[in-house]
Amino acid sequence: MVGFVSGLFWAIGTAGQFVAFKKLGVSVGNPVSTASQIALNALMAASVWENGRMERCGSSDY
């Protein structure tokens, strides 16, 4: 069931991205899509950054 729901959300997101690319154009839509994915992953706290310095620098190498 979880796989089905996940696939459903993926399909809806992909369809929405195609519609957005058609309306905005790829040169505008792709950077917006990429930036929003990065921002949302950071907001969801992917547990990669363990302290504030890592979060500010955007790297887990510190």
TrEMBL record:
UniProt keyword annotation of Transport present: yes
InterPro entries reported for this sequence: Sugar_transport
GO cellular component: plasma membrane
Name recorded for this polypeptide: Glucose uptake permease
One MF annotation (Gene Ontology) recorded for this entry: carbohydrate transmembrane transporter activity
Similarity comment text for this entry: Belongs to the GRP transporter (TC 2.A.7.5) family.
Keywords recorded for this protein, A-Z: Membrane, Sugar transport, Transmembrane, Transmembrane helix, Transport
Highest taxon in the source lineage: Bacteria
Localisation per UniProt entry: Cell membrane
Membrane topology summary: Multi-pass membrane protein
